[in-house]
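User: I'm curious whether this sequence folds into something compact or stays loose and floppy. Could you predict its structure so I can see for myself?
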Amino acid sequence: EVTTVRVQDPRVQNEGSWNSYVDYKIFLHTNSKAFTAKTSCVRRRYREFVWLKRQLQRNAGLVPVPDLPGKSTFFVGSTDEFIEKRRQGLQQFLEKVVQNVVLLSDSRLHLFLQSQLSVPEMEACVQGRGPQTVTEAILHYAMSNCGWVQEEGSRP
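Assistant: Here's the prediction. I'll summarize afterward.
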């Protein structure tokens, strides 16, 4: 089984305003039975990764969860350098997470990677309080999102 996860295309949102942030495209391609959709693409920001790590830690028991890149406020160098370093760190984090069987069993991870639900919507979905099950949310997103696959090409 092969799972390729790439964090790419960082974009600054609300640039120039006090609430600007960077989000990243997460592209997933897999033949693993663990995943509902075999290809997906979502955009996530750093604080959503922080939420995911916290949830994985809470549910993984003694299994160590990989570290995220730091939230450095005193970064020396250009903003572009910082964003690229963070992108690499986020990619390494996800690569390690999807290789861990225990972490892979967490439905929050699947919603994070394969739906564009917000954090509160993911929580509601996992707790059965959302309008859809986890699988339905992922399949709904996959069906509405076929354009992503063509954009990325069908690279393994």
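Summary: Residues 147-156 have pLDDT under 50 and may be disordered. DSSP finds seven helices and three strands in the chain.
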